[in-house]
């Protein structure tokens, strides 16, 4: 393992990283966290290039899941969005990011890939300044590569968009790269030009307007911004995005259930075409069984 401090941490039966965060590992090295009466762990979903190349893997987005003996369970944020206080939400948000970093960098397939971590809206509202400082200190304690982490800011209404500039500046001052979730292609284009984040993320359902899509790809490439379409769930959607990338002559990245389902273990890197071929064979075998 290339991270000695992380290796030392994983060798303990129990440890606190920062601020008495209750984190422990099992015999395989997988990290878990305690939040009230729930046990949390990490699930990861890959972000691929539409050309399907191994080198086109951009990174992985992490998701927090409750854990049970039968496997990963509920998505806790949906339960807490309207019930938890700001203080509770901040505690959970920070716990999840440290947990994800441990579970990501302990796995060899993470080498060379970035880790995309969601920042919840409640944390942005509750923390007044210096966003990212606590997380930066945790990464430093574990000697993990902060430069390979991208913090994803949430989508905001148009009249609140100015807040993202403030939040992005805070995270950048603490050494993080940022990505921005956007509500549509027009907002993605605006942020790509005005804030120049590492990436803008758009729901694939907003990709029907090819002219707007091509404009976004061209402008984003000029600004050095990656474009990621999430929730890609059909081959038709993937193929339409791939055609747009070829027409624009620039990279475009995709993420969704068509390509993989979030899981705790990072898969060995395979080309999308190879993955699709193996999936087709399994489906064919099931039909003729």
How would you describe what is shown here?
The protein is α/β, with parallel strands linked by helices and 289 residues long. The protein has one domain: TIM Barrel. The protein is built from ten helices and twelve strands. The chain starts with a helix and ends with a helix. The relative contact order is 0.13. Mean pLDDT is 81; it is low at 14-19 and 271-289.
CATH superfamily, called what? EAL domain
CATH topology: TIM Barrel
Strand order of the largest sheet: 4-5-7-8-9-10-11-12
**Total strands:** 12
Could you say what the CATH architecture is? Alpha-Beta Barrel
Biggest sheet character: 8 strands, mixed, barrel
What form results from the Cα inertia axes? globular
Roughly how much helix do the residues carry, as a percent range? 25-40%
What's the domain count?
1
CATH class, please? Alpha Beta
Structural class: alpha/beta
Strand content: 15-25%
Number of helices: 10
Q: C-alpha Rg, in Å?
A: 19 Å
**Average predicted local confidence, pLDDT:** 81
Calculate the terminal CA-CA distance, rounded to whole Å.
43 Å
Low-confidence stretches: 14-19, 271-289
Spell out the helices and strands N to C.
HEEEEEEHHEHHEHEHEHEHEH
